[in-house]
Design brief:
The complex is a heterodimer of chains A (about 130) and B (about 130).
Chain A lengths: L1 E6 L8 H14 L3 E7 L20 H12 L3 E4 H7 L4 H6 L11 E4 L2 H9 L2 E5 L2
Helix pairs in contact in A: 1-2
Chain B lengths: L11 E6 L8 H12 L5 E6 L24 H4 L7 E5 H6 L12 E3 L4 H6 L3 E4 L1
Classes of the chains: A alpha/beta (about 130), B alpha/beta (about 130).
């Protein structure tokens, strides 16, 4: 089955991104295709490479990045949600005259259209959040 | 439009708005999704339920808390061909509201029949 995932909550604050990660990993292990993970609302904070959790805690961002690298999962952060929350890639840094970028490896910033497209093209769109 | 979609597939999309317009960003970011989604020529419905019915309340004045008054945008949804707006009647009544308090024309659905609306959908985005 072709599955798309929507993550609506930030890491550590809420279990949604943990659950989404475990769901995606399990779906891939079971032979399903995960066409895209779209991060919206505070969910975009999953993609900050400046994330530095305590050493004895799980590293949510790195876990996602590894999934992108090893399984080619498309991790997309909503641009409008990113701009509000200070998530910046190189293109956005240049466009908005910021002094730094902070997007982690394996993530990309794009428009909400990517969420709609994922919903149209996947067999199931699975949402994680309240 | 950067995300023009030309796949030709038309699915039934339902946006479920469950939260008050202010206090959290969900309502605003849900509306942004509806507006962007309009470019995809899908069969779109929007359901307002629980505190989500407050999103359609007339005479909102959020300027006092220095946030954007996006409630007027609901009136513009028609121009985006988003015309199927549903409100759960019990949610409205429980909050002392009636259709006259709302910014736009809506179709009332009873709590008992919401599942029928949900069952018809291909994609549900709940905010």
């Amino acid at each position: 089955m072709k599955i798309a995932v929507l993550v609506n909550e930030g890491p550590y604050q809420h279990q949604a991104s943990d659950s989404a990660y475990h769901f995606v990993a399990a779906a891939l292990d079971a032979g399903h295709e995960v066409s895209r993970v779209f991060f919206y609302h505070d969910g975009v904070n999953n993609g900050s490479r400046l994330t530095t959790p305590p050493q004895d805690d799980r590293h949510i961002q790195k876990r996602w990045s590894a999934l992108a690298e090893e399984k080619s999962v498309d991790l997309v952060l909503c641009v409008a949600a990113c701009q509000r929350r200070g998530l910046v890639d190189e293109g956005e840094r240049e466009r908005n005259g910021k002094d730094a970028s902070n997007i982690a490896e394996g993530f990309r910033i794009s428009g909400l259209g990517q969420l709609l497209e994922a919903g149209i093209e996947a067999d199931r769109l699975v949402t994680f959040g309240d | 439009m950067e995300d023009e979609y030309e796949g030709g597939v038309v699915k039934k999309f339902l946006y479920v708005n469950r939260r008050a317009p202010h206090g959290t960003v969900y309502a605003l970011e849900s509306l942004e999704t509806v507006l962007i989604g309009a470019a995809f020529d899908q069969d779109v419905s929007v359901l307002f339920i629980d505190d989500g019915v407050f999103q359609l309340k007339k005479q909102q004045q959020p300027e006092g808390i220095e946030v954007k008054n996006f409630s007027k945008t609901f009136r513009a949804l028609e121009m985006y061909d988003v015309e199927q707006l549903f409100v759960e009647s019990e949610s409205l009544a429980e909050r002392g509201l009636s259709e006259d308090d709302l910014l736009v024309d809506v179709e009332l659905v009873s709590r008992a029949s919401v599942h029928e609306l949900v069952d018809q959908q291909d994609v549900i985005l709940s905010f």
